[in-house]
Amino acid sequence: MDRLAQLAAAPEKEHRWDPDAALEGLARLGTRAAWKEILAIARNDKLDDALRAYAILLLGERADPKMLPVMNQMLSSVPASLRDDVLRALGFFHNPRASQVLFGHLHSSNATDRVNAILGVRNLETKDAVPALLAMLDDPDEQVRQVANFALQGLTGEKFKTPAASSGKEPGALAKQWHDWWLKHEASFEPVRQPACHDW
To answer: Rounded to whole angstroms, how far apart are CA atoms 60 and 85?
Structure first.
């Protein structure tokens, strides 16, 4: 474990190996001490953001409820670039407290926060996520609307042809298709489950 932690957190000039693979090795060990090392890497502001983001993803995929307060704390302490990763990872916890944080960020004044909250809500894989995502199809930001459409596709397995943006009717037309679909399928809806990314 100590060797894997050393390889994962080594300075970039010493990267003769893949630090992501070392992180995965720690996750595969699956011990409390190994996950503590992964958390330490996620919190270490001297390390590369991409490596820290991967550590955050692994913590999310593990979805240990004991880690949820730590993830919530990280949401306010990490740089904005990593806050995106924390928001997306929260969805993997399938926990009411995580859901509350994500649904709250859907109303953020920051469009990037809204985008990542949408992706986190999609990761919840719950029926309750659909109405929240439907509401985001009316967001004033085009990227937010696009990501909401993408999230709905992943959660439902349904796809609608996006009207041409040049028509000026894209947001309303696409939202109407989704709302009409939901009216017909809400009672029998079962979320599409994504296969686990890893086996730990």
So the answer is: 9
The C-alpha R_g of the chain, in whole angstroms, comes to 19
Between CA 51 and CA 72 the distance in angstroms is 19
CA distance 105 to 14: 38
20-55 pLDDT, tens digit per residue, is: 889 999 999 999 999 999 999 999 999 989 999 999
Helix or strand holding residue 84 (H, E): helix 80-90
Tokens 């996006």: give the residue. 162
CB atoms within 10 A of CB 89: 29
Q: Can you say whether residue 97 is alpha, beta or left, with left for phi > 0 and alpha for psi between -120 and 50 degrees?
A: alpha
The predicted model scores a pTM of 0.86
Q: How far is it, in rounded angstroms, from Cα 86 to Cα 95?
A: 14
CA distance 58 to 22: 12
Residue in this structure with the two tokens 């009207």, named with its chain if needed: 163
Q: What is the spatial distance between Cα 59 and Cα 68, in angstroms, rounded to a whole number? A: 9
What are the tokens at 189? 């809806």
In angstroms, the CA 88 to CA 81 distance is 12
